[in-house]
Structures are given as structure tokens and as C-alpha cells.
Design brief:
Length: 84
């Protein structure tokens, strides 16, 4: 038995946003951006984050060592709402 807990950062009553980009070996690129703030003053707050990662480098398949994965691409979006 086990559990996976995804705990995103809490939005608050001040507007904020940000972005991060990085470049690495094997044509590896990644980036993420977020926006957070009040949706309804003193009642509803929200935060949404999107991230993307890609790489052309060689990857080893841990479950099947005889196979290799040469391309990796991942896109995700997550959000959080708080209602007080």
C-alpha cells in the first residue's frame, strides 16, 4: 500500500506570476510558468502552473534494459483553487 500526495503551492490574495527556462545536454529543454492571485476578492483564489520538458538524449528503460528511449517529451498542467 502507499500514497502519492501532490501538494501544489497555495494561492493568496496578491497577484504574482513567474517563468523558468533551462537548457541542458542532449538537446534537453524545459520550461514552466505560473500565475496566481485572487479571482473573487477575499473569497476565491487560484493558481495554475504549466510545464514542458523535451530531450533527444539517450535514456535507459529501467524495466526493460534491452530497450532504449531516444526521445522524451512531457507536458503537464496543474491548478489549485481556494475558497474562503
Amino acid at each position: 500500500a502507499g500514497a502519492i500526495i501532490v501538494d501544489t503551492e497555495r494561492p493568496n490574495n496578491s497577484f504574482e506570476g513567474g517563468a523558468r527556462l533551462s537548457i541542458g545536454n542532449h538537446a534537453s529543454y524545459s520550461g514552466s510558468a505560473f500565475i496566481s492571485g485572487p479571482l473573487v476578492e477575499n473569497e476565491l483564489y487560484g493558481r495554475i502552473t504549466a510545464s514542458y520538458r523535451t530531450s533527444d538524449g539517450p535514456f535507459k528503460n529501467s524495466f526493460r534494459p534491452e530497450t532504449r528511449v531516444d526521445d522524451l517529451e512531457n507536458f503537464s498542467v496543474r491548478g489549485r483553487l481556494i475558497w474562503e
